[in-house]
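B., you asked whether I could sanity-check this one before it goes into the benchmark set. Here's the sequence:
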Amino acid sequence: MPGLTRSLAEFVHAPGLGALSGRAVEIAQSGFIDTTATLIAGREEPVVGMVTRFVAARGSAASEATLLAGTGRAASADAALINGTAGHALDFDDVAMGGHPSTVLVPTVLAEAEALGLGGAEAVRAYLVGYEVWSELFRREPDAYHLKGWHPTAVLGTVAAAAASAHLRGLPADRVRHALSLAGSFAGGLVANFGTMTKPLHAGRAAAAGIEAAQLAQAGLTAADDALEHHAGYLAALSPKGSVDLDAPVITQNRPLGILDTGLSIKKYPICYATHRVIDAVIDLAQAHDLHPDAVREVRAWIGVAQASMLRNHRPVTGLAAKFSLEFAVASSLAARSVGLAELTDSFVNQPLIQRLMERVRIQAVDGERCPHEPVFALNDRIEIELTDGRVLASGDLRFARGNAMLPLKPADLKAKFLDCTRAARDLDAEAVFERLNRLPELPRVAQLFHG
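And here's what the prediction gave me:
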């Protein structure tokens, strides 16, 4: 049997996806819609300005792809770097397979398809190819990457982006193999940097590095034929406990695409997804019982070990750090009955009431059964709210957050999020962009997406 690297290269070269229709395409299109929304919403974030100036200072004259849905242009890898960073800057982008696939794949695919003069059908197909490679890599590791310190968006996303780019470039299988292996050497990203500007940069760098890997392979740069599965290779190096499956064959024919299994979870809140089930429950209980924050003596939360590891900021004082704080998520849910962009600001985080409420949150990390759809999470979360009058309000088991792939948002809710994220973008006809995204496979050229 051919090894993993060779098998994936053959798939990327000739994926055999058939006609673009059905549920897989619908899910992929939701990824394009949601990432475009979060990219536009994030384009004024400080980290995006810094990365944009960094790219400009390099002085490249290339004008291949659109920057930030505006009129600026850059080389495709640089556009993917900036756009991927913007898409992840607010931590409002979709979730699957322990990471954020669309915030890597959409900027990669849009930049490369535009640079190559391709249309929406090719873009959607390349997204599905990248997602399938990500899924194949993810399913081989039974242990949580986060617990060793790896951010899956960065380490799995880089290889998936290389696959999407190589597919769009039509590379022969041997060149695809080199691109995937090279991307394995480019991959990196640390959980320790969650809650800082570096986390959104992980997504941008994964997209850019994937494109660069494909470009270098196309130019003739070589890499190992077995870098992904070698005992001293990519997957083994990333494996938290050395439990990764390096030997199982890749089955690409006559089986459902991975995206049909894991799907995409669309975020309702611009904060780490590990908090979302708890946020839903706290807001529901606060509304149902008309709770005043001062009536709460203590909130107890039971969440998974990997979730607790990600939520490292227990007393944040900035909006950025608060994105990785369950204490803040609970406090905001109680005080504002919302955890939105308006709450994730330094001034809101530092309100005396919010700081007091954060002190009342107790977290228990539970090393138990994990969710089969999102193994980085516990099967269920749960909370209890103890009131000053002695009553205890319990959530029961919390299985899926609203917007999860197993509890998806309605199309109208996805459009509402898109329009909310793009409200401040006066340079765009947001309704027209939304309609083009909904007809993406019919778009003759990706270059028409933002400005007709």
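One thing to flag: Strands lie at 65-66, 73-74, 296-304, 361-366, 382-387, 392-394. Otherwise nothing jumped out at me.
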